[in-house]
Amino acid sequence: MAEKIKVATTSLAGCFGCHMSFLDIDERILELAQVAEFDRSPLTDIKHCSAAVDIGLVEGGLCNAENVHTLREFRKSCKILVAVGACAINGGIPALRNRVPLEECLAESYLHGVGVENPQIPSDPELPLLLNKVRPIHEVVKVDYFLPGCPPSADVFWKFLTDLTSGHEPSLPYPLVHYD
Amino acid sequence: MNIRNTITIDGTPVPFQDGDTIMDAATRAGIYIPHLCHNPEFKPHGSCKLCTVNVNGRNCSACTFPAADGQQVLNSTEELNATRRTITQMLFVEGNHFCPSCEKSGNCQLQGVAYFLNMLDPHFPLFYPERETDSSHPDILLDRDRCILCELCVRASREIDGKNVFGLSGRGIHTHLVVNADSGLLKDTDLTPADKAAQVCPVGAIIVKRHGFESPIGARQFDQQNVSEWSLSWEPAAMGDEHG
Ligand code: SF4
Ligand code: SF4
Ligand code: FES
Description:
The complex is a heterodimer.
Chain A: E1 5-11, H1 17-23, H2 28-35, E2 36-38, E3 53-59, E4 62-64, H3 65-77, E5 78-84, H4 85-90, H5 102-110, E6 130-135, E7 145-147, H6 154-165
Parallel strand pairs in A: 1-2, 1-3, 3-5, 5-7
Antiparallel strand pairs in A: 4-6
Chain B: E1 6-9, E2 12-15, H1 22-28, E3 52-55, E4 58-61, E5 72-74, H2 78-94, H3 109-116, E6 133-134, E7 140-143, H4 152-159, E8 166-169, E9 176-179, H5 196-199, E10 206-208, H6 221-224, H7 227-238
Parallel strand pairs in B: 1-5
Antiparallel strand pairs in B: 1-2, 3-4, 3-5, 6-7, 7-10, 8-9
The structure holds iron/sulfur cluster (2 copies) and FE2/S2 (inorganic) cluster (FES).
The site of one iron/sulfur cluster has 12 residues of chain B, from helix 3.
């Protein structure tokens, strides 16, 4: 049997909604498992990409330094890198904070917010530093394909992956293109 | 062939009437040319350039360019649609378009056109501009983040409502929509939800409050119908008066 296609996934500044929607392909995942296997992914809990991943699916934009680090690892390891969902594509809902200075965001959440006890800005050195603004991933690495939607429907994932695994240039017909 | 008062669009002969623009002739013939700032109920504005067509070898705006005997017009070509897609991407990155949190999503013409052009990504770096939202009016919200500066509200308020509530100010990238009141706020104007200006916005910049989620995402206009079919379903009938 031919070697299986390696698929890695990650969620950066996203809500895991895209991953949930991906799993909405339901029993079709068995069909997918015939030709593909998961590499690094929250679904496998594998922490790093193997050397040659075929398809990397990236949910979420970039809101902190660790997101940038992870994205670069994906770009390095994946032959095909895919921006999945509104947040990866244009920053999405997390980017609504871009109009508020970072200091004010932190103060609202950790100092003056409703119900805050023991107010302090988290400063543990283990915590990744926040970026000044949330950014989409195509501003940092080259992205090969984009799957819009918030989240993209299961059918979008299915169409895209089956196009790729059957050797077609992926395309999304009108009914599969949504930004919401 | 009789070419009097006839142009061709993508090789198809299309008759036109005196005073028609290329857009008028196309609309009457049931041919869709993508557009945003054009609305057949108003005088053409020619600002968004989405309606770019090729006339006898030159690109021009179909909504303002007069039809003339024998013109050969290219409309639905891969190249023109790529240009239009780029224009649409620029419109998206210049504003703040977070569709999942926008009441207009699914009913928005900018989105509809982007779907039509199979725009899957913004291509350019995002501007994330800082623009002011005006929620002062009890019934109407003005969210400048989503404004594409088409001036339809400006034209509607002046020409139909007779109120002159809106205007554009500034130049280039600093152009922005202003409200004609000393305070600059919508609450200090006589704009009402029944005004044409409150209803004509093709995007989610002017929103009549408390209607946003009446129909669920997935069951809205452009979820059901391609923007080309939607345009042709009402625009030919709406253009009646202007050349009457
Ligand atoms: S105005 Fe249209 S394109 Fe902009 S956020 Fe709203 S639905 Fe999306
Ligand atoms: S508010 Fe709407 S109608 Fe007015 S200029 Fe902006 S996009 Fe056009
Ligand atoms: S529709 Fe013609 S320039 Fe906007």
